[in-house]
Amino acid sequence: MAEKLIPLEDAQSIILSHVAPTDLVEIPVWQATGLPLAEDAVADIDISPFANSAMDGYAVRSADLAQASGEAPVTLDVIGHEAAGHVFEGTIGAGETVRIMTGAPVPEGADAVVKYEIVDVLDGDGNEGSHVRFSAPAKVGENVRSAAEEAHAGDVVMHAGEVVAPAGAGLLASAGYASVKVHAAPRVGIISLGTELVAPSKVPACGQIRDSNSSALMAEALDAGAEPVFYGIAPDDEQAIGELVHRATRECDFVITSGGASAGDYDYVTALVRREGEVLFDRISMRPGKAITFGLLGGKPYLGLSGNPAAAYVGFEMLARPAIRKMRGFAEGARPVQQAILTHCVKKRQDRRFFDRATVLRDPETGELLVTEAKTQNSALLGTMQRSNCLLRIDEGPCELKAGDVVDVVRVDLPEGTVL
Ligand SMILES: Nc1nc2c(c(=O)[nH]1)N[C@H]1C(S)=C(S)[C@@H](COP(=O)(O)OP(=O)(O)OC[C@H]3O[C@@H](n4cnc5c(N)ncnc54)[C@H](O)[C@@H]3O)O[C@H]1N2
Ligand code: MOO
């Protein structure tokens, strides 16, 4: 009997329709880097609040220097000085200037700043009481940064949903935000299933292997924007699995298990979800990662990934990552897909959609993008994934690809929304 495999896109939309953005938390602006803002950020004042000097020099009335030249320089009286943070209270009149530092407010009456380097101090130290000489005119507004250049009071400086860049944290600070609201990191519970599994710190006995999936999945969850919580390893025992899974669904926003998802004698977890909750799908047209269960348990989304490490990786990437991003408030968006030239032939006999581990590189001579698959696509191997930067996508149906064919690769090394 042919198995019922659902298309990846259907599986993705089922999962996305069962997760929602988490509650809001307030965090220091600098910690919001890389996260979407949950609310519009509005400037409470003009940024900058006053016109200020872009140079260390002399604040002048440009009209005074209109005729200034090397042959006919103009001399002005220095009537004061201004450092950043200091305000000169007076007004500059005809024939007068104020010595000014970068960032200081441009005094009343002045409309330009002339930098030190092209001003001659005729007497004194260049401060009050000195005379200074100008040999060229200054344009209105020269070296003056006007008030509200960045934003006016009441302007939205960053919209809800916009991802804060490091410079944006500075912009938010200048708009009056020491902290901002973002969607909390969803708590993602991770459980490894299998009697053969031992902790990475242990040396496996005969028939045992180290639990590598939980480390990879915790790392992937963290990278996707979640707060991963490890609940441990459950042996292939209904009661032990039930205990961990129940605790995780009570305490977390999303629960992920790996292993025990297939058709073996000890694959209990799908049966548990079917019995106590609802299974929404349990087979996907994808390789690796066919045997993946998604459902609701205790009202929480539950994703049961295949135990094979590469299958767990691809399953997380294609299904859990978009869900975590949605919970964190990111706009929907997929990893960038690129076209590249295949360097070898690939025969595909199965109907499922393939995501083969591969590396894409730019040929230094021709500038073309070339993609080469990892030597083995064995689902048990993670080293090939560690050294790959993309998944070569080969859509449903058997096919024979030749060297030189143009194929689609999913850049798993680049964030969603990257423009290539
Ligand atoms: N009769 C069938 N057998 C299998 C099918 C099938 O359709 N019919 N599908 C195969 C495919 S494809 C996959 S993928 C696996 C999925 O199996 P499970 O999800 O039930 O996973 P396990 O049997 O528990 O483990 C598979 C494999 O992965 C190792 N593993 C499990 N957990 C971990 C871990 N945390 N860290 C490292 N390695 C882990 C486990 O030892 C096994 O070698 O089923 C096929 N069989
Ligand atoms: O689909 Mo399995 O998940 O091929 O490795």
Automatic annotation (TrEMBL):
GO terms for cellular component: cytosol. One of its GO terms (molecular function) is molybdopterin molybdotransferase activity. InterPro entries: MoaB/Mog-like_dom_sf, MoaB/Mog_dom, MoeA-like, MoeA_C_domain_IV, MoeA_C_domain_IV_sf, MoeA_linker/N, MoeA_linker/N_sf. Its EC number is 2.10.1.1. It catalyses: adenylyl-molybdopterin + molybdate = Mo-molybdopterin + AMP + H(+). GO terms for biological process: Mo-molybdopterin cofactor biosynthetic process. Keywords: Magnesium, Metal-binding, Molybdenum, Molybdenum cofactor biosynthesis, Transferase. Pathway: Cofactor biosynthesis; molybdopterin biosynthesis. Its cofactor is Mg(2+). It is an enzyme of class 2 (transferase). The keyword Transferase applies. Residues 189-326 form the MoaB/Mog domain. Pfam families: MoCF_biosynth, MoeA_C, MoeA_N. Catalyzes the insertion of molybdate into adenylated molybdopterin with the concomitant release of AMP. Belongs to the MoeA family. This is Molybdopterin molybdenumtransferase. It comes from Collinsella aerofaciens (strain ATCC 25986 / DSM 3979 / JCM 10188 / KCTC 3647 / NCTC 11838 / VPI 1003).
